[in-house]
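Good morning C.,

I know you're traveling, so I'll keep this short. The sequence:
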Amino acid sequence: MSGDTLTAMGISNVLQLTNILPGVRFNSENTEMKLFVRGVGTDPGFIWIPESVSVFVNGGFLQRFGSIASLFDVASAQVLAGPQGTLYGRNSIGGTVQITTNRPTHEYESTAMVEYGNYDLLHTAATVNIPVSATLSTRAAFNYQAHHGYQTNGGDTERAFAGRLSAQWDPNENFSGFLWAQYWQNDFHNAFWQNLPYPDPRNPWYVPPVASSFAGMPGEITLQPLSHVHMTTLGGQFDWHFADMTLSYIPFGYNFNTDEKRPVDGFDLPWKARIDEYSQELRLSSDSTGKLTWLGGLTWLKSDGHLFYTFGPNLAGYDGTTNLNSYATYAQATYAITDSVRETVGVRYSWDEVSAPNSATISTNGFVTGDFSPVYTPFSFSHNWRRFDWKEGLEADVGEHSMVYGSVQTGYTAGTFNPIENTTKFSNVVKPQTLLAFTLGSKNRFFDNRLQINDEIFYYRYKDLLLSAFSGVTGTSTNYNAPRSTILGNELNIEYQLTGADRLSLALGLLDGKIRDFTTDTGVNYAGYALPNSPVYTANLGWEHVWRAPGGASVNLRVDSLISHGYWALYSHDPYTYQKSYTKTGVNLTYHSASDKWSVGVWGRNLENADTLAAAGAGGLPGPSASYIDPPRTYGVKIDVRF
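The tokens, ready to paste straight into the viewer:
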């Protein structure tokens, strides 16, 4: 999806892609992203829990804690479903989100935007592109977005600033260099971990000023002091062209820091996390347009993260470091067997090491002794895994505008640990997740390319699925491996240029994701339970109409609606964590000047004011469960100017 389309739809972060893509559920828990594609995802968001859906920005892997940052001055955003491990590595077992920012061009241009909406939303953005010379261009982009609290106690606010500087150097036809640096920060009041059932069923965003008491302790004020998060990201790509090949070097790194005051069930939950990540990729690809095209490469990633949190008066917590070292080599080639039949083969070998030196869990003996001072229980962990992934695919042209394809491929996510000391009776190792995926589909265009119909059937065999549920009572979670799960589904996408002024779209996702074999150490059998965040169906409906005025001006109307079947937020199907069926509709009505130098419009999102669970956990106080909630109905006006 192009950056212009994202802007027209008012999409300013990865979370909002949920409303326009089938079979996708992107959640957030404050600064943590929880991405689910076709039922594959990972929850909760501790630094030692690996992602199942990866996010890449300009070719660099961004962990879930950084992918919450604002989207601005973006060239494209693409969600690839299914295991993408051959090219994108271990964190792409469920798919990948590929974000590409605008590169500097050799033309001077500048833009500015401002929008204002309810909840005192103020959103401004600006870009300036400056060609320094015939071979060097620079670009600066800035974004500011702020709004007051979506919750009645004042919680769930935003005041985020981001800036990006980039440079493109093309000294000759054989070399090009791209460098970029970005800074993002957000000062915000955390959303309150809302009890389920809701204290006020008529207003799910109602939060009492003072939370209920627990175990005789007084309830605490639900609006906590400001939290602060900031992230610095550096990246680039350097391409050398020679002998019908391109050698690319892609360095990437970022530093993420968050200092949060999370209100959970009436308790303070100080949450401090730091991540330093560096990666490098060396890639060689063919430039040939002949029968054989190929690419291969080497990757290295190092990540050091530290997390400290305490829940309530030291009822639970963690203080420790998680280190990751990852190496991989990969190759993929496509060969044209005939003029209409092509075969793709891909392989990847990965080596991953996860360690947690000098770490400790935090607890208390206060309920027995009356002294709620922290008790540190140290543990350590170190383990490595090796994995070989592969892909085999065939595609065939069955007409001038029709193609059928099929593939078999594997995916892998490195293992992790439970934060407890390893003993002879208990292993703290959580095994890697693996997936075998079968897909069969077709892509077709009809009526002079006015009608496009794409359909894909998929079947996943999931082994050692990582299941984890956060408890609002204990403030911690336990990780399990479900030996066997399956996912069967179909995804249909239709786009139709009905008239010169009307374009219709339909995306329909069908999903049957089930745990087939899983019994906990306490004897609870979850076989047959639906996978979390896996609605049986989702439908995305879109309509775009253009009224053209004499002289070249136009008015664009865009309506996008998501219809979702209900789903469970937790694999354990805890009470009140079932998200009922809902519909969310967004509307954008924009006037474009004849010169296309400026536009003004009005917009609205979630017009139904549907309440949907953003993330959930068992053990709310006083309710049996608790969750975060997605934003309510929002609306506003927007002005864009091009210079």
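Safe travels,
E.
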